[in-house]
């Protein structure tokens, strides 16, 4: 019940004040109701003998991934009545691995795959004593789980969607290509057929033996004309 929030502020001039750095032999640490809204990355470094940590009634939300990594002897953890929305393995894996009792009730949990999947599975399978579970572990977001227990979270909704996304992209691409081809043939099919015919005839013409056609024609080029215009074509043109 003090106001220690500023000491651990990252924005503090000179950085956060690590006032516990010489107390690493502690076995119990009580920091309840101190207005703490963040824990510096190195605030709990070296606390290998800490067995009980109480941070209830603060304003903690986002925690650094490795802030609890040295708490390998922790048996009792109190984090109830904070603003914690997500509990991730990368953050809480170490302290929760050897716990005897966990108190994390009355937090506004975000019951989404990214925020709560691992914690939900851990709660449903752990032998650790979790007083208040499930009635005091309530989802705040999203709307689908608002005011429902974390135990109601459906892990099946977090199946890997990558194969389905790939199938969706492939099928969508195929449909679009089919539509594009249909429209192209409908509006420009005659042009495509015309150029195809020219290309085929040129290829076939180039394969003919010139000796076969040699002497067959009187002229290299011929001007199409009517009989009335023949004198003008032959004499003038």
Automatic annotation (TrEMBL):
Family, similarity comment: Belongs to the Toll-like receptor family.
Full protein name: Toll-like receptor 3
Keyword Zinc-finger: no
Gene3D superfamilies xrefs: Ribonuclease Inhibitor
BP GO terms, sorted: inflammatory response; innate immune response; toll-like receptor signaling pathway
Span of domain LRRCT: 107-159
Source species: Carassius auratus
Pfam families membership: LRR_8, Tlr3_TMD
Residue intervals passing through the bilayer: 166-187
Cellular-component GO terms for this entry: plasma membrane
Mode of membrane association: Single-pass membrane protein
Annotated compartments: Membrane
SUPFAM superfamilies in the cross-refs: L domain-like
Underlying gene: TLR3
MF annotations from Gene Ontology: signaling receptor activity
Keyword vocabulary terms for this entry: Glycoprotein, Immunity, Inflammatory response, Innate immunity, Leucine-rich repeat, Membrane, Receptor, Repeat, Signal, Transmembrane, Transmembrane helix
């Amino acid at each position: 019940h003090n106001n220690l929030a500023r000491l651990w502020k990252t924005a503090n001039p000179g950085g956060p004040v690590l006032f516990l750095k010489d107390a690493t032999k502690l076995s119990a640490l009580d920091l309840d109701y101190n207005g703490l809204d963040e824990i510096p990355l190195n605030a709990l470094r070296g606390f290998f003998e800490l067995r009980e940590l109480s941070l209830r009634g603060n304003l903690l939300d986002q925690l650094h991934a490795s802030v609890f990594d040295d708490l390998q002897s922790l048996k009792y953890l109190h984090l109830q009545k904070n603003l914690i929305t997500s509990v991730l393995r990368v953050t809480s894996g170490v302290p929760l691995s050897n716990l005897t009792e966990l108190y994390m009730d009355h937090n506004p949990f975000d019951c989404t795959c990214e925020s709560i999947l691992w914690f939900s599975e851990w709660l449903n399978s752990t032998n650790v004593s979790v007083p208040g579970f499930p009635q005091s572990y309530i989802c705040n977001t999203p709307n689908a789980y608002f005011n429902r227990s974390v135990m109601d979270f459906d892990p099946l909704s977090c199946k890997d969607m990558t194969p389905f996304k790939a199938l969706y992209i492939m099928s969508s691409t195929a449909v679009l290509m089919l539509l594009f081809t249909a429209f192209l043939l409908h509006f420009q099919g005659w042009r495509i057929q015309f150029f195809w015919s020219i290309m085929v005839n040129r290829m076939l013409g180039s394969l003919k033996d010139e000796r076969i056609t040699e002497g067959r024609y009187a002229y290299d080029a011929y001007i199409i004309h009517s009989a009335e215009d023949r004198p003008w074509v032959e004499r003038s043109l």
